[in-house]
Specification:
The chain is mainly alpha-helical and about 375 residues long. The radius of gyration is 21 Å and the shape is globular. It has 16 helices and two strands. It is about 65% helix and about 0% strand.
């Protein structure tokens, strides 16, 4: 119980950025505020840490369509990353203005992570809600330039994929309350990204093949990655009605260990440290559940990759991506001692997986 309490304290502590430092040289705090705003608009809101996931999915689409070493592949990559940046900025805006997940006191909103700190920018007054909206719209407008160029030179089939990519962030924001959370993100970083790459280099790609190959990308960032991301936010988000596959599994875990907990009373819940989860009993913050949940998805992803290699959809050399398996497992061991740091390292290693898939596919 002591270890569990220690983990709770480590994982939910959210440092507030010091955006109002006084410059002892006399330049004042306006300069610091400007620097913080620039960082927020150019780095934090777009969440460029996710570029290896979205970008690699798009590039493997280019490779599958036979146009990896073309100028259009680069143009498509730029357009895709602009869509990703705009979607992330919109997510910050919508989580504050629409779903209100990121409003309230520090313990009642999403936690800041080492790899992403955009959850608290508006609440901490680093950027305003309207500045965040402008940032999102600007990235979307910028994405139109390369996409429209590709539509006019390669084929107009890329336009529907682009529109779906633009709208996916709105589904994602609302999906947090209807059990399609992972599916919404998985659609954007999986099928949409891969098909965007394919349509960037050819007007008539094999759409079914692109969708089938996109699943590992959806798994690594969404079905596995969201569980990692949601863990520090769980207490705050569950209270606000957030639903996800990960929360459902974590809610069933204590019930499987002790069936009586499914019908627990408030007194029983308080005694055993359970958090009511509604439809699926109660939820307890046990880091071992997170470890098993993550590794189940990772193992399934690698098994699915073997299947894709066996049917000839992926090149045998994509097996180099398996080098990330044991380092990811090692990170899970350190979740109890320092979750924030271990999660950040896990994300960095996981980002290598989609990159190595592209390298293996191209080199064959």
């Amino acid at each position: 119980m002591a270890k569990q309490q220690e983990f709770r304290e480590v994982s939910t502590t959210t440092p507030i950025p010091d955006t109002h430092e006084i410059d002892t040289r006399g330049t004042g705090m306006m300069e610091v505020g400007l620097r913080a705003k620039l960082k927020a608009h150019l780095w934090t809101l777009p969440r460029w840490f996710a570029a290896p996931f979205f970008g690699s999915a798009l590039l493997i689409g280019c490779a599958l369509a036979g146009g990896f070493f073309t100028r259009n592949a680069l143009i498509g990559l730029i357009g895709g990353l602009f869509i990703m940046a705009g979607g992330h900025a919109f997510n910050s805006y919508l989580d504050y203005a629409w779903t209100k997940i990121d409003q309230g006191e520090i313990e009642n909103r999403s936690a800041e992570k080492d790899y992403c700190g955009a959850q608290n920018l508006i609440e901490n007054k680093i950027v305003s809600i309207y500045e965040t909206l402008f940032n999102a719209l600007l990235w979307y407008v910028l994405s139109a330039i390369p996409i429209l160029y590709l539509a006019s030179t390669v084929g107009w089939g890329i336009i529907p994929v682009w529109i779906i990519g633009l709208l996916d962030t709105f589904w994602y924001s609302k999906s947090k309350f209807n059990w399609t959370h992972e599916l919404a993100l998985g659609t954007g970083c999986g099928p949409v990204a891969v098909l965007l790459g394919m349509f960037s280099v050819t007007a008539h790609p094999d759409i079914i093949k692109g969708i089938i190959i996109s699943y590992p990308y959806a798994i690594i960032l969404s079905f596995a990655g969201l569980a990692l991301d949601e863990w520090p936010d769980a207490e705050a988000n569950i209270k606000k009605g957030v639903k996800s596959v990960a929360f459902m599994v974590w809610g069933l875990a204590p019930w499987v260990r002790e069936p009586a907990s499914f019908f627990q009373t408030p007194e029983y819940a308080n005694k055993h440290g359970l958090i009511p989860l509604g439809l699926v009993g109660s939820w307890v913050k046990d880091v071992n559940i997170l470890r098993w949940y993550l590794m189940a998805w990772i193992l399934f992803m690698f098994m699915y990759q073997i299947f894709l290699i066996s049917i000839g959809y992926l090149a045998p050399l994509t097996a180099i991506a398996w080098l990330t398996f044991f380092p990811m497992m090692a990170c899970c061991v350190f979740f109890s001692s320092n979750y924030r740091k271990a999660a950040g390292v896990f994300v960095a290693i996981a980002a290598l997986y989609p990159v190595l898939l592209v390298v293996g596919q191209v080199l064959g």
